[in-house]
Amino acid sequence: SAQKPTQPGFQTNEYADAQLQEIVKKLRERANVYKEKLNDPVLSSPEGSPTASPKKPPPPPKEEKKDEKKEEKKEEAEEKPEEDHYCDMLCCKFKKPPLKKYMEYMKLPDTIDSYTDRRYVAWLMLVTIAYNWNCWFIPLRYVFPYQTPSNTIYWFVIDVMCDICYLCDIVIFQPRVRFIRGGDIISDRVETEKFYHSTVKFRLDVLSVFPFDILYFFFGFNPALRANRMLKHNTFFEFNDRLEAIMEKAYIYRVIRTTGYLLFILHLNACLYYWASDYEGIGSTRWVYDGEGNMYLRCYYWAVRSLITIGGLAEPQTLFEIIFQLLNYFMGVFVFSSLIGQMRDVIGAATAGQNYFRSCVDNTVSYMNTYSIPKLVQNRVRTWYEYTWDSQGMLDESELLEQMPTKMQLAVAIDVNFAIVNKVDLFKGCDTQMIYDMLLRLKSIVYLPGDFVCKKGEIGREMYIIKQGEVQVLGGPDGTKVLVTLRAGAVFGEISLLAAGGGNRRTANVVAHGFANLFILDKKTLNEILVHYPDSEKLLMKKAKVLLKQKGKPPPGPPAPQPRGLASLFGPKQETPKLFKAMLGGKGKDGLARLLQLKRQEARVKTQKTEWNLLKGLGQTEPEKTKARKKKKTNKKTSKKETQAETETKPKEEEKKPVEPTASSAPPAQKEKLNADAKPEVMQRSTSKESLIISMTPSPRAGEGEILKVEIKEKEKK
Q1: Neighbours of 219 (CB within 10 A)
Q2: Residue closest to 208 by CA, chosen among 135, 305, 299
Q3: Alpha-helix residue ranges (DSSP H) falling in 452-588
Q4: What is the DSSP string of 23-74?
Q5: Domain residue spans of the chain
Q6: How far is the CA of 242 from the CAs of 124, 408, 702, in angstroms?
Q7: Scanning 149, 401, 594, 611, which has its CA 20 to 30 A from the CA of 469?
């Protein structure tokens, strides 16, 4: 290590010096932390509690050791990396996951949550496809001559596949579906199976798979024997509900489903028309189907014109035809009116939010036109509406959350806003539940470009958290200089929120730079929350004091030179205690000057007394001036300050008695040096023959004060 001489005859090691400074710095920080702990017991200790050393387990017996070795070998065999499976297709080679992973993913749990399990929704879709096959093709095959002996095998195979789907749903999936009983979610496999077997849905499902197909051997392949397959309608409606719950835009599926209902009713009407034509005789009258063209398309066209009451059809001739047509018209009016109303509700629900937005904008514009608001303000209001709707999808988020329970509101607020609020340094260390309560009280406000969030000189009673966008802090002599730009996650105005006395003045202008979405928390709301969290309140008040001190500090000057060597081990000189300053009656040089003045007065009094005693011993009287002064002092009362000075000097006089030079135990050399360095203060009094020399010299012993010396010399004759 390099050494650098600091003084002649004294050297310091730079490495050791740096290490010592680091140790002293850590000790001071630790001492400050413990001082704060004594002043504020709410703070926790900075040191973590020591963890207990883990105890050594007792050695296992030999048999267990053998079993453990076998298990370890199995685990090692399982932990071996699996071989990559590749599939060659055409000219490409791609990686293929092993079959074991597929089986693990497809393995069904003991019970199924029908609201969250996507695999269950996929299975319902498969059963729904089988149900729609039966609903559409059983009437078609029964009425129209599309099922022939040559293609019966194909129809039969598809029917068997649909029946397998029905059976798997009854045996495997439906007994696993959880249910709610008394507010509790029952997830026991035995209980779910019992519950399913006791419902009406189970009975209908069993009827839907009852094997009436056996009658094929007696009546032939008649599709009407499969009509019971259409009783599985509960699964169809359950699939609709689950699919709408997981779709982002469910109204699209509702429109498709309503259109499917319309097409299915027209399909049934076409089948009935062909059956009536076959009953009357194909081509027997002008009203029935004439047997030309595609039979299904011709019948479907007639059903559309008949049910929608377009008109232009041939008049019925027989009584059967008239009754059939009348019933067809009545059914068309009823069914289509309900379908049109349902379609209107679906479209209205899909555009309800947009209609509400348009009505709000129209009402606001009408209000501004009524009171002749300037066009510039109207354009800004329209811009605010458009941006708020595009960014949030609603004008006020609280309206949506108010419909939910408090716990759900909190869950949504945590997912949306907790990540932003948790970054705020002001709330770090506070109770997490207090932050949760605060999330429910935050208000979101959108500011347009150039809007003043707060102005200089305003009374601040709230703080702001930037959710999205940027704001600029302006200052300077003209208030247009950009001091700093704050972005998402930044906080400003927290000093106003925590300041005592209701708030303080804003010190700068804050302007939105572009569109800015801010959270606002006012002082009243925060106080209502902190009532229930006293520990967090103490912590916030402490942070507020620190912020206020930092705000009031002058700008930092040049850094002070750091002491080097062993001088860095000692801290800077502490300030004189206030009690000692008060005792001195002043600060700095004034107090010291007063103390010296009191000592000089005390010395003068002592010299006068000794002088008078010496003069009396010589047989001389006191001077005229001193006699008059003494007589005057005895006639007048001393002031309060003089009496206080005398009372203060009495104990000092007792402590500082004059010590004879001969009584000193100092060596002669030291005495001579002290006498040589001292500058005696000479006080002369006029006498007849002798002159009196009085001097004050410091005592060689520490704490003994000064030594008074009196010398008498004869006057020199002129």
Answers
A1: 9
A2: 135
A3: 494-498, 523-530, 534-552, 578-584
A4: HHHHHHHHHHHHHHHHH-TTSPPSSPPPPPPPPPPPPPPHHHHHHHHHHHHH
A5: 105-337, 404-551
A6: 9, 21, 97
A7: 401
- Which among 1, 2, 5 is positioned nearest to 564, based on CA atoms? 5
- Dihedral sign computed on CA atoms, order 412, 415, 420, 425: positive
Q: Three-class SS of residue 325?
A: helix
| C-alpha separations of 454 from 33, 505, 610 in Å | 37, 10, 79
- By CB atoms closer than 10 A (0-12, 13-18, 19+), residue 554 is exposed
What proportions of the chain, in percent to the nearest 5, are helix, strand and coil?
60, 15, 30
Name residue 22's amino acid: E
Backbone angles phi, psi at 463, to 5 degrees: -120, 160
For the segment 404-454, what is each residue's pLDDT rounded down to a tens digit?
Answer: 787 888 888 888 778 777 777 777 788 888 888 888 888 888 888 888 888
More reliable by pLDDT, 183 or 581 = 183
The whole-angstrom separation of Cα 278 and Cα 296 is 13
Q: What's the count of helices (H) and strands (E) in the chain, helices before strands?
A: 25, 16
Decide: 511 and 456 in contact? Cβ < 8 Å.
Answer: no
Q: State the DSSP H helix or E strand holding residue 79, giving kind and residue range, or none if neither.
A: helix 62-79
Sign of CA dihedral 40, 43, 47, 48: positive
Q: Looking at the domain that runs over 404-551, which CATH code has it been given?
A: 2.60.120.10
Above 80 in pLDDT, residue 376? yes
79 pLDDT above the threshold of 70: no
Q: Is the pTM of this model over 0.85?
A: no
- Tell me the CA distances in angstroms from 500 to 20, 463, 503, one per residue in order: 43, 14, 6
Separation of alpha carbons 247 and 394, rounded Å: 19
Give every CB contact of residue 708 below 8 A, 6+ residues apart in sequence.
603, 606, 607, 610, 658, 694, 695, 696
Cα 585 to Cα 598, 651, 691, 705, distances in angstroms = 12, 18, 39, 22
What's residue 412's pLDDT?
A: 82
Q: Residue 303 corresponds to which tokens in the numbers above?
A: 């059903």
* CA dist., res. 116 & res. 647, Å (int): 92
CB 380 within 8 A of CB 448: yes
Tens of pLDDT along 285-312?
A: 899 998 888 999 999 999 998 888 777 7
